[in-house]
């Protein structure tokens, strides 16, 4: 799978897709939706769809797709290649949600929780298929949140399409299993080929599964916690695992915002304000002492707005 479009800038989200088979534009089709990487504190979450004519369901079954979680990495790669080779009747699309996108969405002023983000991404992929000319009649989805409410929501947004939302849909419906395989293969590729924009030199790639309870993941999080600037963008800094480590291991700083007088609060508590890291002692900007966090992101201090 070619994920180079995302690898080129993994700070933002990215959509990838196969060609749309001509038969999917003329025959009634079914579509499955599933995700990979919902729980990990490291790396992206990937949503995938697969679609094919309803008349080709038996051919899809013949590919012997299964829930990606029950397969080895090698088995997933082999099955994805089979799916991709079936381009005469089967298509797929992916939406890769970067860790940065996930965290900023969850922590912005108008917060967007993971369920809402998942729903919006799934809806966007169904709309992408429709806009591409796929004649959708059936949609099968692995549930996020209460299945009945999610099914009702999707049915209202896409009237005329028969929507089925079920727990463990990836083990019940082959078209969802196919979507699960596509999503998981994409996430595996992206994590394996991750480019750290923070220039971490010979970064240790033994970060385990990425799940918070994995000892290797915990050790990696401790190793790469910058005491001032936190984590590289590979980490979902909105996850409680990361937040807890930042609160307990990082330097205590105060941000200037509308709700608190950061400079005065910092002085009162004998801590440094976050703004102090932008300037040299005495308040005079000194580019030679700028931390690499700012130079790598081409950030500069401004005298006026």
TrEMBL record:
PROSITE patterns: RNASE_H_2. Pfam families: RNase_HII. One of its GO terms (biological process) is mismatch repair. GO terms for molecular function: metal ion binding; RNA binding; RNA-DNA hybrid ribonuclease activity. Keywords: Endonuclease, Hydrolase, Metal-binding, Nuclease. Residues 28-251 form the RNase H type-2 domain. It comes from the Eukaryota. Manganese or magnesium. Binds 1 divalent metal ion per monomer in the absence of substrate. May bind a second metal ion after substrate binding. InterPro entries: RNase_H2_suA, RNase_HII/HIII, RNase_HII/HIII_dom, RNase_HII_hlx-loop-hlx_cap_dom, RNaseH-like_sf, RNaseH_sf. It is an enzyme of class 3 (hydrolase). A divalent metal cation binds at residues 34-35, 142. The RNase H2 complex is a heterotrimer composed of the catalytic subunit RNASEH2A and the non-catalytic subunits RNASEH2B and RNASEH2C. Belongs to the RNase HII family. Eukaryotic subfamily. This is Ribonuclease.
